[in-house]
UniProtKB/TrEMBL annotation:
Compartment list: Membrane
InterPro entries in UniProt: Cation/H_exchanger_TM (IPR006153), Na+/solute_symporter_sf (IPR038770), NAD(P)-bd_dom_sf (IPR036291), RCK_N (IPR003148)
Membrane topology: Multi-pass membrane protein
Tree of life domain: Eukaryota
Protein's organism: Zooxanthella nutricula
RCK N-terminal domain ranges (all copies): 389-507
Gene Ontology molecular function, alphabetical: antiporter activity
GO cellular component: membrane
Chain ranges passing through the membrane: 65-83, 95-115, 127-149, 169-193, 205-233, 253-271
Keywords: Antiport, Ion transport, Membrane, Potassium, Potassium transport, Transmembrane, Transmembrane helix, Transport
Pfam families: Na_H_Exchanger, TrkA_N
Domain Cation/H+ exchanger transmembrane as annotated: residue spans: 9-357
Protein name: RCK N-terminal domain-containing protein
GO biological-process terms attached to the record: potassium ion transport; proton transmembrane transport
C-alpha cells in the first residue's frame, strides 16, 4: 500500500482481509476466534476513545461537537434514511438503521490523515474532529438500541425501546460515574503506591473488562461499558498510565477487527453486480460529502474548508460496520444486504486518502484568490480573540509549538513578519496573521483589564530570540503581570535579564535549523499552562520519535 502512496494501516488491514479471506485465497474463514479477537479490539478502541473524550475537551469544543456535529449527523442520517426507503426499498425501521449506520465516518482513518498532514489545528481539522466526537457519542446509544429493536418492523413500535435505551444509558452513566470517580480512583491509588507497573497494568485490564462484564449483566452491551470506563478513567490521575497500557494492545487487536471486515468484502459481488456496488459507493460518498458541506457552509465556513470536511468524512466508518453486523444479527438486514453495505463501506474507506488529497488541492486553489491582510494592522478577526496562547513568530519553533498545542486542543493565534509564511498558513486556514512583536504587544495591551489580565489570553510566546523581542517581552510582562510570557534567547545573559523581569526564558541548545529545537519550548509552554509531567512527557516523546523517523 505504501508503494501506491496509501499509507494507512486501516486500509492495509481491510485489503489483507480481502486477500486472505473467503473471497480471496480463502486462507482464513470468519471463525469464532477471529470474531472474538475483533470484538476485543473494538472494546479497547472504545475505551481509548473514552479516555480521549474528557469533559474539559467537550467543554472547549461544544460548538463543533454539539451544534455542527449534531446538525451533520441529523441531516446525513435523514438523507440516507430517504435513500434506504425509496432506492433500496427498506422498511422504516431498517431504513433508520441504514441511515444511522452510514452517517458514521471513520474516526481512526480521518484522525490518522489529519495527524499525518498536521491539520488537526486547522479550521477544517477542528470541524472534522468535532463531528467525529459527536458520532462517537452516538455509537454507544445505537449499540444499546439495536438489541431492543428485534422483531419490530415499524418506527412507532420502536419508540418505547428508544426511551428505554435512553433511560438505561442514563442509569449506566450514573453507575459508571460512581465506579470511575470513587472505586477506580481509590483502587489505582492503592496499587500505584506499591510501585509495581505489572500490577497497574493488570488493574487497567481488570477495570475495563470488569466494567464490560457489569454492563452485560445489566443487559447493556459491553461496548458501552468499555467506552464509559475510558471516559471516567480519563478523569483520574492515572489516565496516561492506562492509555499507555491500552494503546499497543489496542492496535494489535483492532487490526483483527479490520481484517475480519475484509473477510466480509465480497469480490464476487463486485464482479457479478458492479453497477449495484459502484452506485451504492457513489451514493454514499456524494450524499455524505454534500450534506456535510451544506452544514459546514451554514455554520459560516468558507467553501475551501467546507469541501475539505465533506470529502474527509464522506466514507463509511469502522462503527458503520459494527452497527451493520449487529443489525444483521438482529434480523434487520439479510445477508445480501449486509454484504453489499460492508463492501460499499470498505471501498469508500479505500477512496478516503484520494478524496482527502483532492480536497487539499481544491482548497489551495480556492484560497489562492483570497490574500491575507498584510500590512501594519495586526489585529486578528473576532473569531480568533478567544485564543489562550499568542505565538509571536511562526517559524520552525512556532509551528511545532502550535502542533503541540493542537494535541491538547488549546486555541492559539500566531503572528509573523514574513508575508510568504503568513500566506502559506492562511491557505491552510490556520490562525496566522501579519504582525511583528511590538505591534502584537500594543494590540494585546489594548485588551488588558484590571489586574493585568487579557481576557482569554493566558500566555504569550516569543520565538524569534532577538534583543527587540526580549525587550518587548519584558515590557509586556510589566503591563500584564497576570499573563505568562515565554521568550527564546540566544545567550545566558539575556536569559538572566528575562528571568529577573518575570519572563520565562528558553535557551536553545541545538542549531536553529534543527526540528528538535521546539521540544524544550513545547515542554515549557505546556508546563506553564498547568499540564502535568505525566501528560506532557508521552506527547513530547511521541513528537521526538516522529522527528527521528522523518530524519531517518
Amino acid at each position: 500500500m505504501s508503494r501506491l502512496g496509501l499509507r494507512s494501516s486501516v486500509l492495509s488491514n481491510i485489503m489483507l482481509g480481502v486477500i486472505i479471506g473467503p473471497s480471496g485465497f480463502c486462507i482464513f474463514q470468519n471463525t469464532p476466534w477471529s470474531e472474538t479477537l475483533a470484538e476485543v479490539g473494538v472494546l479497547f478502541f472504545l475505551c481509548e476513545m473514552g479516555i480521549e473524550l474528557t469533559f474539559d475537551r467537550l467543554k472547549k469544543m461544544w460548538r463543533d461537537v454539539f451544534l455542527l456535529g449534531g446538525s451533520q449527523l441529523l441531516l446525513t442520517c435523514g438523507a440516507m434514511y430517504a435513500i434506504g426507503r425509496h432506492l433500496f426499498g427498506l422498511g422504516r425501521l431498517p431504513a433508520f438503521i441504514f441511515g444511522a449506520a452510514l452517517s458514521l465516518s471513520s474516526s481512526a482513518f480521518v484522525l490518522q490523515i489529519l495527524g499525518e498532514q498536521k491539520e488537526r489545528g486547522t479550521r477544517h481539522g477542528r470541524a472534522a474532529f468535532g463531528i467525529l466526537l459527536m458520532q462517537d457519542l452516538v455509537v454507544p446509544v445505537l449499540l444499546v438500541l439495536l438489541p431492543m429493536l428485534r422483531g419490530m418492523s415499524r418506527i412507532k413500535d420502536a419508540v418505547p425501546a428508544m426511551q428505554q435505551a435512553v433511560l438505561r444509558t442514563g442509569m449506566a452513566l450514573f453507575i459508571a460515574s460512581v465506579n470511575g470517580r470513587v472505586v477506580l480512583g481509590w483502587l489505582f491509588s492503592f496499587v500505584a503506591a506499591a510501585g509495581s507497573p505489572a500490577a497497574l497494568r493488570c488493574l487497567s485490564f481488570v477495570s475495563i473488562f470488569g466494567t464490560c462484564y457489569i454492563f452485560e449483566a445489566l443487559g447493556l452491551p459491553s461496548t458501552l461499558g468499555a467506552f464509559l470506563a475510558g471516559v471516567f478513567l480519563a478523569e483520574t490521575a492515572y489516565r496516561q498510565q492506562v492509555d499507555a497500557v491500552i494503546s499497543p494492545v489496542r492496535e494489535d487487536f483492532f487490526s483483527f477487527f479490520f481484517i475480519t471486515m475484509g473477510f466480509l468484502v465480497d469480490l464476487q459481488l463486485v464482479f457479478t453486480r458492479p453497477i449495484m456496488v459502484l452506485s451504492t459507493v457513489a451514493t454514499l460518498l456524494l450524499v455524505k460529502s454534500g450534506a456535510t458541506m451544506v452544514v459546514c457552509r451554514a455554520s459560516g465556513m468558507n467553501w475551501a474548508n467546507a469541501q475539505q470536511v465533506g470529502l474527509l468524512l464522506s466514507q463509511g466508518g469502522e462503527f458503520s460496520l459494527v452497527v451493520i453486523n449487529t443489525a444483521c444479527s438482529e434480523g434487520l438486514f439479510n445477508p445480501l444486504q449486509r454484504k453489499l453495505l460492508v463492501t460499499a463501506v470498505g471501498i469508500s474507506l479505500a477512496c478516503t486518502p484520494i478524496l482527502a488529497g483532492i480536497g487539499r488541492e481544491l482548497a489551495e486553489y480556492l484560497e489562492q484568490f483570497k490574500e491575507p491582510a498584510i500590512g501594519g494592522h495586526s489585529e486578528a478577526p473576532e473569531t480568533n480573540k478567544g485564543a489562550e496562547v499568542v505565538v509571536c513568530g511562526y517559524g520552525r519553533i512556532g509551528r511545532m509549538i502550535t502542533q503541540v498545542l493542537d494535541e491538547r486542543l488549546v486555541k492559539w493565534i500566531a503572528y509573523d513578519t514574513n508575508p510568504r509564511v503568513v500566506s502559506k498558513a492562511r491557505m491552510r486556514d490556520l490562525p496566522v496573521f501579519y504582525g511583528d512583536a511590538p505591534q502584537v504587544a500594543v494590540s494585546l495591551s489594548k485588551r488588558t483589564g484590571d489586574g493585568g489580565s487579557m481576557g482569554s489570553t493566558k500566555m504569550v510566546v516569543f520565538t524569534v530570540g532577538d534583543t527587540r523581542c526580549d525587550e518587548t517581552a519584558i515590557q509586556l510582562k510589566k503591563k500584564s503581570p497576570e499573563v505568562k510570557v515565554l521568550a527564546t534567547t540566544q545567550h545566558p545573559g539575556g536569559a538572566a535579564a528575562l528571568e529577573r523581569s518575570g519572563v520565562t526564558p528558553i535557551v536553545p541548545t541545538l542549531p536553529e535549523n534543527s526540528m528538535m529545537l521546539n521540544l524544550p519550548m513545547g515542554v515549557a509552554v505546556l508546563d506553564q499552562l498547568g499540564y502535568s509531567q505525566e501528560e506532557i512527557l508521552p506527547m513530547i516523546r511521541e513528537k521526538r520519535l516522529e522527528l527521528i523517523n522523518k530524519e531517518a
